Amino acid sequence: MRVKSRTETNASAGQVRIRGASSEVARDINRRIVLNLIRTRHPISRADLARVSGLQRSTISLIVEQLIREQWVVEGASGRLPRGRRPTFLRLNDERVIVGVDIRPTQITVALADANGRFMTQEVMATPADPKRAMPELIERIQRVARSCQGKKIEGIGISLPGRVDRKLQRLVFAPNLHWSGLDIRTPIAKATGYKVELENAANACVLAAVWFDHMEDCRNFVVVTVSEGIGTGVFVNGQLARGLNGMAGEFGHVPLDPEGPLCGCGGRGCWEVFASNRAALRYYFEAAPDSGELSFPDLLRRADQGDSRALKALTGMAHYLGRGMRMIVAGLAPERIVVVGDLTRSWSHFGPVIEGEIRAQTLRGGRPPRLIPARDDGMARLRGTIALVLQEDFGINREIPA
After folding, report:
1. Rounded to two decimals, what is the model's pTM?
2. Are 6 and 403 in contact (CB under 8 A)?
């Protein structure tokens, strides 16, 4: 990784003075490089770290010893070579853990995971409609999960939210499907637990999960589209997570496709999410079969798998609108990939071709459609993102190199 120099401009003299990066900056960058190589390639030896990073072995040794003292890295088994000294392999210390919280309009999941993203325990609770009642219940769940860590070091609490977060104020400022806007979530949890608390929009959390755990670090331009009660988008541009003014970048779900369309939770009409979300598919189904009784989106997927023609038609309509909405993303951002997160990925053989067809139909001349990728359907992308959210300060994921 190249260290950028500092550039200073003297406005009066019109001169530019170049000052090299400080040794502290260089050491910090090298430390992050080594730490991330251990994270992504463990178990790995010091010799292999030097070979892959291009750093001198003496530099690697100093950094590794520092990381061991900080208890980020531990030594494991020894390898075998035809001759010479047997190498000792390094790995992340799984005694450092994170509490992840995924808040959705219908349910909240609280989980405990190590730095490698392995989840050890989780609890699920229904989301209270009243945020004042929700906070004490949520804090109680977090404290109970934290007590289960059995002496491991808790790095912090990461929280994924179905709305936009003002990172300066650390408040939820836009959550039309949750109705908790303006609520201070961070302060009461931090005071009750004593741990640092990080908040992030759910789609942005999924971007962090893709970069951190799904080996997407080689792709510098991609978009994550989360499909659930609403539609969220997280935008990764030129190797950085785009947040925009007040954290509002990426609200494609609330761009109107039809100004005369159904009313949206945001107060507008005909937004993308009222045509392409899970709720939209259920609405299509109930319009065709009003006497169907209570039905969830997973129920709808199962009915489609069993050959229910009305369920298939409802899901096909949803898929067409998903593709039409993605045209905005393709035309505006030209991403290399679009990652789709949600229950619909369980039936990707049905959704994928329809969405891809819509995108190809509107690809601009001279361009090419992005690769469409369904996220693994374990439903944990948001929670994995909360783990990366807490750890990114130490590992440097999505952090700009100081200029």
Report:
1. 0.84
2. yes
